[in-house]
Design brief:
By secondary structure, the chain is α+β, with helices and mostly antiparallel strands. The protein is 38% helix and 19% strand. The strands form 2 sheets. A 6-stranded antiparallel β-sheet has the order 3-8-4-5-6-7, with no helix packed on it. It has a two-stranded antiparallel sheet with strand order 1-2. It is globular, with a radius of gyration of 19 Å. The relative contact order is 0.10.
């Protein structure tokens, strides 16, 4: 198969991000995630379908084929290794590494990527808590839940925060809402869409949409970290 373009790699990675279980993705969701027009999405999906990297029907959406999934996971692995390198070795702030890794993932050779991975002793997670697939594309099973789904009194360990939105990541870092942190849901005001959290010994009040994408491992009401 010819080498994929950056745009093709981005489409495959976006399909994986929107449906890691392999389900279909509507063209409208793909267009929103990539910031492109619906006609552009339709044209690219047609190209990817002809190379058998995706299956696509206009009303049924698009889904990754087995080979498309392998390509997508390979790009995800490259991205997360590079994010980790930029933060851990070069000392860049975790809220800044996503955009740089987006560029580098398309230009670093496999040989250099594996050397970087060895240098860091094969990290299991990126700076945002997302697992790094191994060389065979495997990920460990984890049972995570959205932070906003916790009931009042429940404790949890933060495992993943979404990347890409630098301002939000900066606020989370300032509040201590980072991978590995222990949080307790103090109160849920459902009518107002407001959540009151305890992070360490600090109280933090947040709107529900500001917590979107933060995934936790519940510890229960009486559990201690």
């Amino acid at each position: 198969m010819p080498a994929l373009s950056r745009s093709q790699q981005d489409y495959l990675k976006a399909l994986y991000a929107l449906a890691p279980d392999g389900g279909p993705v509507a063209t409208s969701r793909l267009a929103e995630r990539l910031g492109v027009s619906a006609p552009s999405v339709t044209a690219m999906l047609g190209k990817l379908a002809r190379t058998r990297l995706v299956s696509y029907t206009p009303r049924g959406g698009a889904r990754l084929s087995a080979s498309g999934r392998r390509q997508a996971i390979d790009t995800v692995r490259r991205h997360r290794i590079l994010e980790t390198f930029l933060a851990r070795v070069l000392g860049l702030d975790w809220s800044e590494v996503h955009a740089d890794a987006e560029v580098l993932e398309h230009h670093i050779s496999d040989r250099v990527l594996e050397a970087i991975d060895r240098l860091m002793n094969h990290p299991a997670e990126d700076p945002h808590g997302h697992q790094i697939p191994d060389r065979r594309g495997r990920l460990r099973a984890r049972r995570l839940a959205p932070l906003a789904s916790l009931a009042a009194g429940e404790r949890a360990t933060v495992r993943e925060v979404p990347e890409g939105e630098r301002a939000r990541m900066g606020r989370w870092k300032q509040a201590g809402l980072v991978p590995g942190a222990t949080v307790r849901m103090r109160a849920v005001r459902e009518l107002d869409g407001v959540f009151e959290l305890e992070i360490g010994r600090r109280r933090w009040v947040s709107a529900g949409d500001a917590l979107a994408g933060v995934m936790v491992e519940p510890l229960g009401r009486g559990a201690r970290p």
